[in-house]
């Protein structure tokens, strides 16, 4: 029988998976410490769009005080509290109630004003047009099959001149037989791109490789990741690549990419027809 709403099923599966990871103390669910919050209040802070490599400070406004920030699919009590401690007005939006609970807990502990909102990153209808000055979107759009919808919503809720900071997995990672690479260091192409945990492998293989409680992942083409931002109206102003430490694939190519994109104060005119 065909699933009448496959995306709803994916969203529900990934909500349960991230709730379980949060309960088990996965590294991306561990809130920042009081010392890190104190340092951010003093102006000393760094947050991550990808593993290992801090997001460049010049990708942020020079002064975060009073800036309205959306931490998109970014629960876990890690990025939002740091930005709030640095003076921003922070809203954290995430599919996982357990992840949002980490941000709520840090806000109570540190006396920070952080708003948490549950939902699907493709649908930001909880927010009016032109609500935010900055969107911080770390590696998380690999958990939705439709990234172009994310970019359209980001463009809508950003104010003109606002910035979208995004990190994601290099899509080439998904082409290889990851189990073979990790176990034997053999890099064998296995999957065509874009890859989907839902359609390219069986549920049984997914659970065997990653565990029954692992979220479903989706690679996206660079055309969707970067071209999709341009199509939505953004102008790219920054780009970096990052490697995952002690990773077999990361010895040969960067595991992650990150972009900074601006919503122009005036939308660029469409090319003239010839």
Structural class: alpha/beta
Question: What helical percentage do the residues reach?
Answer: 25-40%
The number of helical elements comes to 8
How would you characterize the largest beta sheet? 7 strands, mixed
Mean pLDDT: 94
> What's the end-to-end separation, in Å?
49 Å
> Largest sheet, order of strands side by side?
3-2-1-4-5-7-6
Tell me the strand percentage band: 15-25%
- Order of helices and strands, N to C? HHEHEHEEHEHHHEE
* The first-level CATH class name: Alpha Beta
The named CATH superfamily: Vaccinia Virus protein VP39
Number of strands: 7
Q: What best-fitting shape do the alpha-carbon axes yield?
A: globular
**Are there runs of 5+ residues with pLDDT below 50, and where?**
none
Computed over alpha carbons, the radius of gyration is: 19 Å
> What is the CATH architecture term?
3-Layer(aba) Sandwich
Domains, number: 1
Task: Classify the fold: give the CATH topology.
Answer: Rossmann fold
Q: Any chance you could write out the topology, listing elements then pairs?
A:
Layout: H1 6-24, H2 34-41, E1 68-72, H3 79-85, E2 89-94, H4 97-110, E3 114-118, E4 132-137, H5 147-157, E5 158-169, H6 178-184, H7 203-210, H8 222-232, E6 235-242, E7 256-262
Helix pairs in contact: 2-3, 5-8
């Amino acid at each position: 029988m065909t699933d009448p709403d496959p995306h709803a099923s994916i969203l529900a599966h990934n909500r349960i998976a991230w709730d379980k990871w949060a309960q088990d103390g996965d590294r991306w669910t561990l809130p920042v410490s009081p010392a890190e919050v104190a340092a951010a209040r003093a102006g000393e802070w760094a947050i991550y769009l990808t593993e290992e490599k801090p997001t460049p400070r010049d990708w942020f406004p020079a002064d975060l005080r009073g800036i309205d920030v959306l931490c998109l699919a970014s629960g876990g009590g890690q990025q939002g509290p740091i930005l709030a401690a640095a003076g921003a007005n922070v809203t954290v939006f995430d599919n996982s109630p357990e992840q949002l609970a980490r941000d709520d807990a840090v806000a109570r502990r540190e006396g920070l004003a952080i708003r948490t909102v549950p939902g699907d990153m493709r649908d930001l209808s909880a927010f009016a047009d032109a609500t935010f000055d900055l969107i911080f979107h770390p590696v998380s759009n690999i958990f939705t099959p439709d990234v172009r919808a994310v970019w359209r919503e980001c463009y809508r809720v950003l104010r003109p001149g606002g910035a979208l900071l995004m990190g994601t997995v290099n899509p080439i990672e998904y082409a290889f037989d990851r189990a073979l690479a990790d176990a034997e260091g053999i890099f064998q192409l296995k999957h065509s791109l874009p890859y989907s945990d839902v359609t390219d492998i069986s549920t049984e293989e997914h659970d065997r490789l990653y565990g029954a409680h692992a979220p479903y992942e989706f690679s996206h083409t660079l055309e969707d990741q970067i071209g999709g931002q341009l199509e939505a109206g953004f102008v790219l102003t920054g780009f970096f690549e990052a490697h995952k430490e002690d990773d077999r694939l990361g010895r040969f190519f960067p595991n992650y990419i990150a972009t900074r994109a601006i919503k122009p104060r005036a939308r660029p005119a469409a090319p003239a027809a010839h």
